[in-house]
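Here is one record:
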Amino acid sequence: MSQQASGSLARPRYPANLLFVLTAGVFAMASSSIFIRYAQAEGVSSIVIGGARLLIAAALLTPFVLSRHRLDLRELNRRDLLQALAAGFFLALHFAAWISSLEHTSILVSTVIVTASPIWVAILEFMAFRVQPGRTVLAGLVIAISAGVLIALASGGADTPTEGGSQLLGILLAVVGSVAVAIYLVLGRSVRAKLSVIPYIWLVYGCAGLFMALTIAVSGLPVAGFSVEAYVWLLCCAIFPQLIGHSSLNYAVGYLPATIVSMITQLEPVGSAVLAFVLFQELPLPLQIVGSALLLFGVMLASLGQRTPPKTKGA
C-alpha cells in the first residue's frame, strides 16, 4: 500500500455538513436566553418555559422517530429505560433551575456558570467512578472555582434584571442547573452509545418534559391566556436552542471528541452576552466580566484534560 493511500485511510472522515451543523448549533444555543427573557417578559413562568420547550421539541420529533427508529428503541432494555428516565429528570431540573436563574442575574453570568458542566462532570467521574483527574483538570477546577467566588462577590450589590430579584440566588440557581446537566450527561452516556441522535434526544426530551408537566400540574402554574407573542417565543425556544442547538451538539459528539464539542459550547455565553448587550443593553459589572472570562478558561482547561467517553452513534 502506498504512503499516500495509507495516509488517506488514517485520516478521519467527517460529514460534509459537520462545520455547518456546529456553527448553527452554537448560534441556536446562544439565542436560548434571549427567547427565554422575551417569554418571561410576557408573563410566562420559568417552569412553563422549560416544560414547553421540551414537550414541543419531543412532539415535533415523534412522527419521525416512530416511523424510522422504532426498532432502535425496542433494543433498549429495562436498565437503559430507567437510565433515560433518570437522565430526563436531571435535564428537567437543569432547565427549571437555569431558566429561573435568568430572572435574577445577567445573561452572561447565568450562561457562563451553567455551561461549566465539564467541571462538574470531572468531579462526578471522580466521585462515582474513581476517575483520577489529571493536572490540567485540577488546574481548571481551581481556576473555575476561584472565578465562581469572584463572580459571587462581585454580584453581591449588583442590580438584578427583574424587580425583586437576587443576584446571589440567580448564581445559585445557575450552579444547580450546571450540576444537573452534568449528571444528565453522565447518566445518558450508555444510552446515547446505543442510539443515534434523533431517537436519543426524543427519549430524554420526552422524559424531561413529562417531569416538567407533572411539576406544572402540581404547582397549578397557568399555561393558557398568554399573548400571541408569548407562544411565539415558546415555539422559538423549542425549535432553535432545543431542537437545533442541543441536537446539533449531540450529533457532533458522534464524530468529534467530546472534549472538542465541550470547548465549542463555551462560545454560547459569549454569543448570548453580545446579544443581551445589543437587545437589552445589559452590561455586567467589570468584575463579573473578568470572573466569567476566568471561568470559561478554567472550563476549557478541564475539558482538555478529561478522558474521552465511550463512542456514540453519529446519526
